[in-house]
């Protein structure tokens, strides 16, 4: 059942969630992260990541070395190897996972509410996606769907951060020509721009839906979510929204990019997987708190 979004999101994030909860038993694979668990507490953690990176064993869809503040591809790959395991350890604990799911739901609802958009349809689709991901039966379907998009691991970095968030920021930087044409028209009122944008996105996504192997799989649900979130966010980033909402969207982007840079900036040589997981969770919680306060203004 879908959960309603409240006017204030403060009550969603209670104090216990500010403390990292480490798994009480060896981490188990989930559809949020299907990583092997034997290496979770190994020593010489970063050295192993460097070894894997140097050997070409760290696969990734797109290099994010620049945005992550890494000096080269080897550093990016080595730290990514470590972060995948850290995220897996975080998500393996049910309490951490539930907190993160609630945080995502409430933050995106807050973004919609600030643009005076109804959140019911978003919550419905968001919860359907979470339910789909939590069902182990769907793991191979997701692996197949995302594999065609060169996503090699089912985890927080690869799906949520890289594929969803960072790709969205890339699209904002290089929008399709049809969208550029809409926002270049100074005489077109906002309502008409929003309608035109929704029509363009609907046409683009409809074409992609026709190529889906699984019409009710993860990507289909993700496309539906995109049709809800993309129009108001695109309007803001391309200058077709109110000043206050545009500032909020840029604030959101700044916090996400800041989080990414920070988790790649740690002294990896001095941490094992447990310590890195705790550090990442602390940074994640801090980022959520900052966004929460901004959305509650």
UniProtKB/TrEMBL annotation:
This is Bestrophin homolog. GO terms for cellular component: mitochondrial outer membrane. InterPro entries: Miga. Signal peptide: none annotated. One of its GO terms (biological process) is mitochondrial fusion. Keywords: Membrane, Mitochondrion, Mitochondrion outer membrane, Transmembrane, Transmembrane helix. Belongs to the mitoguardin family. It is found in: Mitochondrion outer membrane. The keyword Membrane applies.
